[in-house]
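Reagents: none. Just compute today. DEN2D protein.
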Amino acid sequence: ATEGKEETPAAESNPSRGSQGKAGDRSSVLYSAGQFFFEYLVVVSLKTMSDGHYEPKISYQFPKRENLLKGQKEEEERLLKAIPLFCFPDGNNCAPVTEFTSETFSFVLTNVDGSRKIGYCRRLLPAGRGTRLPEVFCIISCLGCFGLFSKILDEVEKRRQISMAVIYPFMQGLRESPFPAPGKTVTIKSFIPESGTELIELTRPVDAHLEHVEFQALLQRLSPQLILHIFASAVLERRLIFLAEELSVLSQCIHAVAALLYPFTWAHTYIPVVPECLLDTVCCPTPFMVGIQMRHLERVLDQPMEEALLVDLCEGKILRAVGDEEEILPAKLQNEVLTSLNRHNNNNNVQTSEQVNALVSEAFVQFFVRLVGHYASHIKWGKSGQGTFQERAFCKAIASKTNRKFVKKFVKTNMFSLFIEEAEKSRIPQEGKW
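Predicted 3D structure written out:
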């Protein structure tokens, strides 16, 4: 979950891997098919230090990299140094136990060039007797697809119960398989002693931009009205702090909030679970979206913070706000989104998470379409094929005063600028995004 630009690990610069993506090009990093599924699988264990406290350390790494160039080696070292912190952001609050319900969560590491790597984690208790400490299996990938990696972690956990040695061939098979295109399936053969050869099918959802999202997690904890206040703050790139005790709740809800901005991308500090040693992130004057465990609430409130929105995901309420959240979005459009979300909430038909994702996403995409969907007709194309966005004409074309007032603020955001930068490069209309 790091997202400061300075101390974050750089991505491996492997030319055969395809583009790592530039700052405005994040989505291509997360969704291109044919890439490796993952870069590393690491196991992070808690080691007891001489003063009695626990420190997370990598106890297993696959693959081990040989013959790295100097720059690549430094990048790898930075990456491997950061991972344990995010696998155990609550390191010293862990204790040996006899029973533990395994937990799935994820974090994000931002590279210097703005590209992102995702750490998919499964915290579980190693097989054995008596009290023992949990360990975390973490898969590092450039690809955003939470459902798919949860399934891979299920397979890893199943093999862990037999022996670490059975995990290796499975991960090797996965590494040799190309990442499937949206809607497609890849089949991995895997041999398990005493069970024989298994065929594991991994399918990507058709709608690639919803692969990393569980909107249900947000709807279960927050009212539609609160979700809109959070969305309004995110759209204007403010500071957002989410609080919950469980790592899985924090990571699911924050990924869901970031996904509400589609087809735009949150381009600032983004840490779904902040490790204790990075709690002063909340003092940043720049925009951020972070998740903090509830046990640190007092410490967070004591920090000298700029204005921020503080959301309690346990109680489903806002603890601190700027105060204007209700007035940010144009009222008519806000009510339309609210109606869609309430319709979902009052719908007693049991819906799959894919259906919920599609309904919620559609409501917010329509919000953007109604406000800024006319952007393409305000890009003036030069002979060289380079486009120039005509901001004044674009804003003037909006008939409604309240809509125009909002859009004038929105066009100043980093996420809108990045989106337009991409659009100016490509004469092919971006309709696919909407």
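The longest helix spans residues 353-372.
Action item: order primers for follow-up constructs.
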